[in-house]
Specification:
The structure is a homodimer of 141-residue chains. With 141 residues, chain A is mainly α. The first copy, chain A, has one domain: Arc Repressor Mutant, subunit A. The first copy, chain A, is 58% helix and 4% strand. In chain A, helix 1 crosses helix 4, helix 2 crosses helix 3 and helix 4 crosses helix 5. The relative contact order of chain A is 0.14. The interface between A and B is large, with 54 and 54 residues. Chain A binds a DNA duplex (30 and 30 nucleotides) through helix 3.
DNA sequence: TTTGTTGCAATATCATAGATTACAACAAAT
DNA sequence: ATTTGTTGTAATCTATGATATTGCAACAAA
């Protein structure tokens, strides 16, 4: 089990927008060509990024731009924009309350797993779009 | 998206085995009653725990026991026993190699996300079955 | 008014997880 | 040796969620 590819796709979109917004009109069709998914998926994801205040999309005429500088966009922002707010692990419903383990399993695991999730969020927060752009530049020059 | 509930179920199984192995025969039907899932799911999960060397199951006569002491079983052991070895995030296949972003997106994200996954593994490793049993005892007495 | 685009709904397709059924293999008890 | 209760495993069913696809109204600029 793993997270869907919405997150990598969203990062891909943001990198493309950051890289090309000054040279050409970054449309969902253009992005679909680079990411290689259906344009509607791009538009949907872009809608989430827009709702999160990460990009501005020009309705009608088309094209997208970053709403903030790449230093101010972290992977945590992207994650929150794109993924549901869920627990990392899915608990089984209705464990038997007559069993001491069943009665307590949820409470036992919950805070420990939330801690792990918290660490993951911190890690994502430490990665900025700018750092990815820097790496990208290093790889392409 | 999140991990399936195999992991919490496996922990539940191990806690029950540890708690009851000296008092009664811990069968898949007994466990199914506490966890509240189908006995076949228990047997399947138990098979994974057995293959990972965490429990011994008595074929024929039935009943399970821990193969090691609870101090020597970590949630990382359980995780490896029960979850596929996958990346945390699912990458989109076939990004456009003609685009500098598409050509590099995988390499850009991969090691960063692997690092995050590594932290998660370390966190899981720090949680022993014994610590859960201690908490359980504190809650039930 | 035309053109290219976004936003969104509806539907289709596909993969995966869990539930369920069925049954052979097994070991102990009698 | 037979019975009994259990494990191990395969096959199938169902539900859910993710992505793909189609279609179209709304929009803004030329």
């Amino acid at each position: 089990m793993q997270f869907s590819f919405r997150m990598p796709v969203a990062v891909h979109i943001l990198l493309c927008v950051a890289s090309f917004q000054d040279e050409l009109k970054v449309t969902s069709n253009f992005l679909a060509g680079s990411v290689n998914v259906h344009p509607v998926i791009i538009r949907k994801t872009m809608g989430q990024l827009k709702a999160a205040g990460l990009v501005d999309v020009a309705a009608g005429v088309g094209g997208a731009r970053l709403s903030r500088s790449p230093e101010e966009i972290t992977l945590l922002d992207v994650f929150h924009a794109v993924e549901e707010e869920e627990d990392l692990f899915h608990f089984h419903e209705n464990p038997n309350p007559a069993c001491p383990v069943g009665r307590n399993i949820h409470a036992l695991l919950d805070n420990r797993l939330q801690t792990i999730r918290g660490h993951m969020m911190k890690d994502l927060e430490a990665i900025t779009l700018q750092s990815l752009l820097d790496d990208l530049k290093a790889k392409t020059t």
